[in-house]
Every structure is written in C-alpha cells, then in structure tokens.
Q: What sequence folds into this?
C-alpha cells in the first residue's frame, strides 16, 4: 500500500538512460553499504514506456496544467470582464466554487488512476524504489543509479547546499540568507531632496513599476521562465539532456542557493582526457530564453573544456523567479559548487555568458532600473581578471536601431565603460575618439586600416603595460598614460580595444563556433 501511495505522489518519469560504462561516482561523496540494486538498463527501452492508464491520465493532467497556466496569465482580463458583467456577486461565485471543487475532485481521481498505472509498471516501481532510497541515504551508489533516470526535477535530492563550504561558516564574507551583495542603488541627483512630498509623488509610479516588473515585465525580460514556452520546448530539452548524459557522460546536480531556490546544473568532466583545456572549467550562463540543454554549452564542449551549465531561477528544473538578486544568488552557489565540490581552482574557472537583451521605453526604463537592473557594466568593472567581449556584427537584438548600424550595438558601451574604468588616462579624449572610430568599422579591412593609420606598435604597448604592472601591481584602475603623448594614448587605446573585443560576423542566436572560443588576453 505504501508503494502505491508513492506511485500516486511520485514525480513524472521521462526517460531511462543507457547504462554508461565510464560512470563514476561524484567526488566528495563517501561510499556506504546501503544501496539499491537494479537490473542493467540496457535490457530495457531507454525511453520510459508508461502503461495505457498512466499515459492517458498524464495527458489529462498535462492538459489541465496548460489550461491553468493560460487562466493564470489571462486572469486580470478575466476578472475585469466578469466584474463588468456582474458575475462576481456572491450568488454567482458560490455555484462556480462548487463546479471548481468538483473539477478538483475529478483531477484528484485522475491522479490516483495514474498512480495505479505506475504501480503496475515494473520500470516505475524500480525507479521509485531507487528515488526513495536516495532520499534516505545519498550514497554514491544510490546517486549513480538515480542518475540513470530523467524525471521531474522537483523530486531530485539536493546535492550541494550554499552553506556547505567551510569558509562560509568560518568567515563573515559569505552571503547571508538575504543573498549575495549587489551594487548599491543609484544615488540621488545633486540638488534633489528626497522629501516626504517627493516620495508621495513617486509612489504611483513606483507601485506601477513594481507590478509591471513582477508580472508582465519579468516574463518579457526572461521569456524562458514562462511555463507555456517550457512546455513547448520540453521534447528538445529532454533530447538535449539525453545527449549530455549519454554521449558526454554529464552529471546532473541540484544546488540549493541561499534564497531557497533550487538550481538545475549539468557538469561534463574532461579532466581525464588528453586535451589540456579539459583542466579548465567553463561555467555557461545562458540568455533570457536559453537553457543549458540546448544553449551555448555546446561551444566549450566542442573545444574540449570541462563544462558546467546551469538554468536561471524559474527555467526548466530550477525554481524561483529570475530577478537580479536571485540570479546573483544562483551564480554564487554555482561557483561555490565548482570550487568546493568539483575541485576546480578559481584561476581555472572561465565564465562564458550569452547576451541578456534589454528594454526600451518610459515606464519600462523605470521598471528595469528599479527592479530588473542587471548592472552589466558596473558588475564587470568590479571584476579584476581577464575579460574577452565577443561582438556579433549582425546582432538584431542588442542593437538600438538596425543590425547594420554596428555603432548601436550595446557591446560597444560595455567595452568603452570597461576600458574607461581600467585605463582612465589612456581613454581620455584622444583614446576615446580613436576607439569609437575603430568600433565603427564594419569589416576587418576597415579595422586593419584604422589600426595601421595610427601605426600601433604592439611591442611598445606591451612593454609599457608590463612595466607599469611590475611597478604598481595588477589591480585596476591603472594610471598608465598619465604622462604620455596624445599619439601614444591613441596607440595604447587601440591596442587594448583589439585585445578586449573580438568581432564575430553572425546574428544574435547563432552559436559561437568552437574555434572562436578563445581565452581572454592578459599580460
């Protein structure tokens, strides 16, 4: 009877992976004798085959879930319509609640029938036995066997906790339950008094901005968090996961962030291969409608690197909503997992991020700045390590006019702000002007023409930068170029711009080829 109840309440099972000979238990997890034996999955069809009762019941529940999602998104309009028609009176609401209660009872009955269908299926009974054993005891053997199944990630046991690193318990520098520290908000403009009257005047706009950000705005900025889109992409996501697990020997893990969100990750370990780049880990950060199953993770994989992919909060198996603070908390636990569980040193970790897009408009501008502001340039300037920006010359998403107008590409602003922060003396009037000219070049021939016009001596530029670093250290900002001629600043500015930004002739969603995946320049 207990097993039947487990089948009724258990997660949906999507796929049974082929047995992998090269499977290894995750490092850092001790072996224990408590484990569940399972027959080789090669004797079963790798796609889970539900019985007819379970299959039809699943279809009914999935259809009900889609209808509920549509009702949720359209509820403001529905309530407004019902209010105008006078259907929200008590005499109309009570019968409607009876209908809703009857429908819920019918759906509960369908769920019970699905559980009976699962209970009669030996594949599902074997899976639920392994899942329950893993929740009781997360031994390496139990987790290895559980990794052979792809199922609803909500039921996957937590593999790594944000408080797990010993440094978090012994120091005050780690994040609290309030989350990772972000940049402080923009200060008031000079001469602006934040009086009570001003606060009252701003209140309607602030309320509207909050409502827009937490309803329509978040879904526009991160369409990948919309349930209906995830439902439509489910076959592609399952296929992508199967490729990563079966062909690349990927290991899936659930990470618990400090805000309580559960982050879905996939790790492919290349440290055991002959390729030297396998010793480095590339953490892939997907775009606003991207998932690690079908996203930019393919580029470093083809290049031979170890790769750690993760989904934004609210995307696929990850819980929560993708607000900036939640994003920062998720990234923090992903990096801590890479260091403390996977065993990579910080200097061997590379962050590879796809563009996030942006908004325009009056109310949207206020909403994004107050509630959805990712502060890309400010966050980047806080980072002291090597950086490489890849500008897509035909990008149709982050250009503010047309894709052919390369100067409207927002990547230009990112480069200029980074160089102005790191090399403020070099990026004075002359340096800023010549870098803008270089960014306007629409072809490699034009870039080379500007580069040669100012006769950039790369050896001289390198010697200047190395001498300054040897004397003053590596921490930015640098005051190099303070006593330099205008011609010297132009040369140095062009040299740095070419090192920090590479062009890639493609549109926004074109995957980056493996040969274009290069390490950032550093002295």
A:
């Amino acid at each position: 009877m207990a097993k039947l109840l487990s089948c009724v309440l258990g997660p949906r099972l999507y796929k049974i992976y082929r047995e992998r000979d090269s499977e290894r238990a995750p490092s850092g997890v001790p072996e224990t004798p408590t484990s569940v034996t399972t027959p080789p999955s090669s004797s079963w069809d790798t796609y889970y085959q539900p019985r007819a009762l379970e299959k039809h019941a699943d279809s009914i529940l999935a259809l009900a879930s889609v209808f509920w999602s549509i009702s949720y998104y359209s509820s403001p309009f529905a309530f407004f319509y019902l209010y105008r028609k006078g259907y929200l009176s008590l005499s109309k609401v009570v019968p409607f609640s009876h209908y809703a209660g009857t429908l819920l009872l019918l759906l509960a009955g369908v769920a019970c029938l699905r559980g009976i269908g699962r209970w009669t299926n030996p594949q599902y009974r074997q899976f639920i036995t392994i899942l329950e054993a893993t929740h009781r005891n997360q031994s390496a053997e139990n987790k290895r066997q559980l990794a052979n199944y792809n199922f609803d990630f909500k039921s996957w046991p937590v593999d790594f906790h944000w408080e797990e690193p010993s440094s978090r318990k012994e120091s005050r520098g780690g994040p609290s339950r309030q989350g990772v520290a972000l940049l402080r908000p923009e200060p008031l403009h000079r001469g602006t008094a934040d009086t009570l009257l001003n606060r009252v005047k701003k209140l309607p706009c602030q309320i509207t901005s909050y409502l827009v950000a937490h309803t329509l705005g978040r879904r526009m900025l991160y369409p990948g968090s919309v349930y209906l889109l995830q439902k439509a992409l489910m076959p592609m996501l399952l296929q992508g996961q199967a490729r990563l697990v079966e062909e690349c020997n990927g290991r899936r893990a659930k990470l618990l962030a400090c805000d309580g969100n559960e982050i879905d990750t996939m790790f492919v370990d290349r440290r055991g291969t002959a390729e030297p780049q396998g010793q480095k880990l590339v953490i892939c950060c997907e775009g606003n409608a991207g998932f690690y199953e079908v996203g930019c993770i393919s580029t470093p994989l083809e290049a031979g690197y170890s790769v750690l992919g993760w989904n934004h909060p609210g995307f696929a198996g990850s819980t929560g909503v993708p607000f900036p603070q939640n994003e920062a908390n998720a990234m923090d636990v992903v990096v801590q997992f890479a260091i403390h569980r996977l065993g990579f040193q910080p200097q061997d970790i590379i962050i590879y991020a796809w563009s996030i897009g942006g908004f325009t408009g009056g109310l949207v501008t206020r909403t994004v700045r107050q509630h959805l502001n990712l502060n890309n340039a400010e966050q980047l300037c806080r980072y002291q390590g090597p950086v490489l920006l890849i500008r897509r010359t035909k990008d149709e998403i982050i250009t503010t006019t047309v894709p052919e107008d390369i100067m409207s590409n927002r990547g230009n602003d990112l480069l200029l702000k980074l160089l102005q922060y790191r090399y403020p003396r070099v990026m004075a009037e002359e340096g800023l002007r010549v870098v803008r000219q270089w960014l306007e070049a629409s072809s490699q021939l034009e870039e080379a023409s500007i580069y040669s016009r100012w006769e950039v001596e790369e050896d001289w530029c390198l010697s200047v930068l190395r001498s300054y670093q040897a004397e003053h250290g590596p921490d930015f900002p640098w005051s190099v170029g303070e006593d330099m001629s205008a011609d010297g600043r132009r040369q140095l500015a062009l040299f740095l711009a070419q090192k920090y930004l590479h062009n890639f002739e493609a549109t926004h969603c074109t995957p980056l080829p493996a040969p274009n995946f290069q390490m950032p320049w550093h002295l």
